[in-house]
Please model this.
Amino acid sequence: MTDNTLRRMDNIAIVVDDLAVAKAFFTELGMELEGEATLEGSLVDRLIRLDGVRTDIAMMRTPDGHGRVELTKYHSPASPDGAQPVHALGAHRIMFAVHDIDDVLDRLRAHGAEPVGEVVQYGDSYRLCYVRGPAGIFVALAEELD
Model:
Protein backbone atom coordinates (compact mmCIF):
# COMPACT_ATOMS: atom_id res chain seq x y z
CA MET A 1 0.00 0.00 0.00
CA THR A 2 1.39 3.42 -0.92
CA ASP A 3 1.14 6.58 1.18
CA ASN A 4 -1.52 8.16 -1.08
CA THR A 5 -3.90 5.18 -0.97
CA LEU A 6 -7.31 5.64 0.58
CA ARG A 7 -7.17 4.30 4.12
CA ARG A 8 -10.89 4.04 5.02
CA MET A 9 -14.23 5.75 4.76
CA ASP A 10 -14.60 7.70 7.99
CA ASN A 11 -18.26 8.75 7.93
CA ILE A 12 -21.20 9.96 5.90
CA ALA A 13 -22.68 13.33 6.88
CA ILE A 14 -26.39 14.05 6.51
CA VAL A 15 -28.05 17.41 7.10
CA VAL A 16 -31.27 17.07 9.11
CA ASP A 17 -33.92 19.52 10.29
CA ASP A 18 -34.51 17.90 13.70
CA LEU A 19 -31.47 16.37 15.33
CA ALA A 20 -33.39 14.67 18.15
CA VAL A 21 -35.75 12.94 15.70
CA ALA A 22 -32.85 11.79 13.50
CA LYS A 23 -30.89 10.45 16.50
CA ALA A 24 -33.96 8.52 17.68
CA PHE A 25 -34.46 7.05 14.19
CA PHE A 26 -30.87 5.83 13.86
CA THR A 27 -30.83 4.60 17.47
CA GLU A 28 -33.95 2.53 16.74
CA LEU A 29 -32.16 1.14 13.70
CA GLY A 30 -29.40 -0.08 16.02
CA MET A 31 -26.76 2.64 15.83
CA GLU A 32 -25.11 4.02 18.95
CA LEU A 33 -24.47 7.67 19.78
CA GLU A 34 -20.71 8.16 19.78
CA GLY A 35 -20.64 11.87 20.59
CA GLU A 36 -22.17 15.31 20.05
CA ALA A 37 -20.72 18.76 19.46
CA THR A 38 -21.57 22.29 18.42
CA LEU A 39 -19.38 23.68 15.65
CA GLU A 40 -19.04 27.36 14.75
CA GLY A 41 -16.47 30.05 14.04
CA SER A 42 -14.17 31.17 11.27
CA LEU A 43 -12.49 27.77 10.86
CA VAL A 44 -15.84 26.11 10.08
CA ASP A 45 -16.89 29.05 7.87
CA ARG A 46 -13.68 28.74 5.84
CA LEU A 47 -13.90 24.93 5.66
CA ILE A 48 -17.37 24.83 4.08
CA ARG A 49 -17.33 28.33 2.50
CA LEU A 50 -20.38 29.68 4.33
CA ASP A 51 -20.57 32.70 6.64
CA GLY A 52 -21.88 32.54 10.19
CA VAL A 53 -22.07 28.76 10.49
CA ARG A 54 -23.45 27.34 13.72
CA THR A 55 -24.25 23.66 13.67
CA ASP A 56 -24.92 20.83 16.11
CA ILE A 57 -23.69 17.38 15.15
CA ALA A 58 -24.27 13.88 16.48
CA MET A 59 -21.95 11.07 15.45
CA MET A 60 -23.75 7.72 15.25
CA ARG A 61 -21.77 4.45 15.11
CA THR A 62 -22.76 1.02 13.82
CA PRO A 63 -22.61 -1.78 16.44
CA ASP A 64 -19.46 -3.22 14.84
CA GLY A 65 -17.71 0.16 15.18
CA HIS A 66 -16.73 0.38 11.51
CA GLY A 67 -19.44 2.67 10.11
CA ARG A 68 -20.43 6.17 11.17
CA VAL A 69 -23.16 8.60 10.20
CA GLU A 70 -22.72 12.25 11.16
CA LEU A 71 -26.10 13.91 11.65
CA THR A 72 -25.85 17.68 11.20
CA LYS A 73 -28.39 20.35 12.15
CA TYR A 74 -27.59 23.85 10.83
CA HIS A 75 -28.86 26.69 12.98
CA SER A 76 -27.24 29.22 10.68
CA PRO A 77 -27.24 29.71 7.83
CA ALA A 78 -30.63 28.08 7.28
CA SER A 79 -30.70 24.92 5.16
CA PRO A 80 -32.83 24.94 1.99
CA ASP A 81 -36.10 22.99 2.17
CA GLY A 82 -37.33 20.17 -0.05
CA ALA A 83 -36.75 16.43 -0.19
CA GLN A 84 -35.45 14.98 -3.43
CA PRO A 85 -36.82 11.92 -5.23
CA VAL A 86 -34.83 8.71 -4.87
CA HIS A 87 -33.46 8.99 -8.44
CA ALA A 88 -32.36 12.68 -8.31
CA LEU A 89 -28.81 13.46 -9.38
CA GLY A 90 -26.58 13.51 -6.33
CA ALA A 91 -29.23 11.86 -4.16
CA HIS A 92 -27.94 9.24 -1.78
CA ARG A 93 -28.98 6.41 0.40
CA ILE A 94 -27.35 4.46 3.18
CA MET A 95 -27.72 0.68 3.19
CA PHE A 96 -27.73 -1.34 6.37
CA ALA A 97 -27.64 -5.11 6.78
CA VAL A 98 -30.40 -6.11 9.21
CA HIS A 99 -31.45 -9.37 10.84
CA ASP A 100 -35.26 -9.14 10.43
CA ILE A 101 -36.41 -6.56 7.87
CA ASP A 102 -40.08 -6.76 8.90
CA ASP A 103 -39.25 -6.08 12.55
CA VAL A 104 -36.97 -3.17 11.63
CA LEU A 105 -39.66 -1.66 9.38
CA ASP A 106 -42.25 -1.90 12.17
CA ARG A 107 -39.92 -0.19 14.64
CA LEU A 108 -38.89 2.56 12.20
CA ARG A 109 -42.52 3.35 11.32
CA ALA A 110 -42.96 4.48 14.93
CA HIS A 111 -40.33 7.13 14.10
CA GLY A 112 -42.13 8.38 11.00
CA ALA A 113 -40.34 6.22 8.43
CA GLU A 114 -42.30 5.14 5.38
CA PRO A 115 -41.30 2.52 2.80
CA VAL A 116 -40.54 4.06 -0.59
CA GLY A 117 -41.79 0.97 -2.45
CA GLU A 118 -42.28 -2.65 -1.52
CA VAL A 119 -40.12 -5.17 0.28
CA VAL A 120 -38.72 -7.29 -2.55
CA GLN A 121 -36.73 -10.50 -2.67
CA TYR A 122 -33.56 -10.45 -4.77
CA GLY A 123 -33.11 -14.03 -5.92
CA ASP A 124 -32.26 -16.37 -3.07
CA SER A 125 -29.88 -13.84 -1.51
CA TYR A 126 -31.66 -10.87 0.06
CA ARG A 127 -34.92 -9.19 1.02
CA LEU A 128 -34.56 -5.48 0.31
CA CYS A 129 -36.48 -2.24 0.79
CA TYR A 130 -35.99 1.53 0.76
CA VAL A 131 -37.31 3.69 3.58
CA ARG A 132 -37.58 7.47 3.72
CA GLY A 133 -36.56 8.61 7.19
CA PRO A 134 -36.22 11.99 8.89
CA ALA A 135 -35.37 14.96 6.66
CA GLY A 136 -36.07 12.79 3.59
CA ILE A 137 -33.06 10.51 4.18
CA PHE A 138 -33.18 7.35 2.07
CA VAL A 139 -32.20 4.23 3.99
CA ALA A 140 -31.95 0.84 2.30
CA LEU A 141 -32.42 -2.28 4.40
CA ALA A 142 -31.01 -5.64 3.37
CA GLU A 143 -31.84 -8.93 5.08
CA GLU A 144 -29.54 -11.74 3.98
CA LEU A 145 -31.42 -14.99 3.41
CA ASP A 146 -29.97 -18.23 4.72
